């Protein structure tokens, strides 16, 4: 039987920091049913290097619930 998380929140707020603690960006991850059949959260954002605002990065984040794929 596939794992479900009945106590999962409706969103995750993700803050990305560098090793010095400077914030590069914040994004929201929302629930997602992945094409693989697994369940979890997905978010994406454009991040800016606080020491070089012209350097922008794009990121995609997946949080997959282990054992949520049917047949797992």
Oligomer class: single chain
Low-confidence segments, given as residue ranges, are none
Mass-distribution shape:
elongated
Query: Structurally, how many domains make up the residues?
Result: 1
- Sketch the topology as an H/E string, one letter per element: EEEE
Profile the largest sheet. Answer: 4 strands, antiparallel
The whole-number mean of residue pLDDT values reads: 95
Q: How many DSSP-defined strands?
A: 4
Strands of the largest sheet, in order across it? 1-2-3-4
- What's the number of helices? 0
- Can you give the helix content as a percent range? under 10%
Radius of gyration: 15 Å
The rounded distance between the terminal residues' Cα atoms is 7 Å
What does this structure look like?
The protein has 72 residues and is mostly beta strands. The chain has one domain (12-64). Helices cover 0% and strands 57% of the residues. The chain has no helices and four strands. The protein has strands at residues 12-17, 23-33, 39-49, 52-64. It has a four-stranded antiparallel beta sheet with strand order 1-2-3-4, with no helix packed on it. A hairpin with a 2-residue loop joins strand 3 (39-49) and strand 4 (52-64). The protein is elongated, with a radius of gyration of 15 Å. The N and C termini lie close together (7 Å). The model has no long low-confidence stretch (mean pLDDT 95).
